[in-house]
Amino acid sequence: MNTLDTFIGHLTLPKVFDPTNALHDLEESGIETPNIRSYYFKIMDECARRKFGKK
Predict the structure, then answer these.
(1) Cβ(4)–Cβ(48) under 8 Å?
(2) Contact assessment for residue 47 and residue 3, using Cβ atoms and an 8 Å cutoff
(3) Is residue 54 part of a domain?
(4) I want to staple 52 with a disulfide (CB 3.0 to 4.6 A). Which of 7, 13, 29, 47 is the partner?
(5) Range of the domain at 35
(6) CB 4 within 8 A of CB 46
(7) Which of 38, 51, 42, 49 is nearest to 7 (CA)?
(8) 22 part of a folded domain
């Protein structure tokens, strides 16, 4: 079984994220939210490296 097989179904489902509350909470904090494209593949690589989902 491939490491991604465990959660690939969830990754392919359509998703909508509403960051309204988080952005409101971060206002005036100086913290900026990064674009997911800047870290998504780093997360996937780390999941694969750690064999995420394997028992």
Answers:
(1) yes
(2) yes
(3) no
(4) 47
(5) 3-9+18-49
(6) no
(7) 51
(8) yes
CA geometry: angle 44, 46, 49, nearest 5 deg = 110
Tell me: pLDDT of 33 over 70: yes
> How many angstroms separate the Cα of 13 from the Cα of each of 7, 8, 31, 35?
11, 9, 29, 20
Model pTM above 0.85: no
pLDDT tens column, 6-28: 788 888 889 898 999 999 999 99
Burial environment of residue 44 by CB neighbours within 10 A (0 to 12, 13 to 18, 19 or more): middle
Residue 1: its pLDDT value, please?
A: 60
